[in-house]
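Q: How do we represent a protein-ligand complex in a form that can be generated token by token?
A: Start from the inputs.
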Amino acid sequence: MKYLIIGALGFALSGCASIEGAQAQQGSNSYTLPALPYAYDALEGAIDAQTMEIHHGRHHQGYVNNLNAALAENAQLAATPLEALLANAGQLPAAIRNNGGGHYNHSLFWRLMAPVGQGGEPSAALQEAIVRDFGSMDAFKAAFNRAATGQFGSGWAWLVVADGALRITSTPNQDNPLMDVAPTQGAPLLAIDVWEHAYYLKYQNRRADYLTAWWSVVNWNEVNRLYEAAR
Ligand SMILES: [Fe+2]
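Then emit the structure tokens for the protein with fe (ii) ion bound:
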């Protein structure tokens, strides 16, 4: 599908160390944890340093380790690029679906955040599309927040491009919109992790407060780049 190809190109062309970490070594049966593009305490105010350190260093590292272990047991899948694996998630062993999704989702999530004041603003083209498809920026944020708060249990909320239009969706566990099993498929532009491990230390059960603060650290520069690659 077009968006899968574009998405893969976007990653390949990004030049971002974190994405190289997510995508490099395909075929070598060994994925690696990408470095964060900022310090653990860089998002303080929205996400505390301890949460970032545990989330990146333990949870994401765990997905990488478990993905590599699962691919070692399924050698026929080891040479397949990650996006192509995820596009056939419905046929994958659960360990590859869950940990491959976890690695992809977190590698994207880190890039989609930046310290307060460093994330830029939505581009004119993206703002125009948001108004076209959601009515206003406020309406878009409200709809995105509803998807994130409404995701029962662990999962993610997403803004994607699908067939030229912006759409909001959510997925359980480590599923994502690249997957054939996703209710809405498309090229991800924005994502928020609403697993409790993403916010519980600072916000406990107050997922809505985490969401409110999170908007202050969205890296719109990266969202804009993804939109230009996908539209
Ligand atoms: Fe997470």
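The domain at 2-37+48-111 is CATH 1.10.287.990 (Helix Hairpins). The chain has two domains: 2-37+48-111, 124-230.
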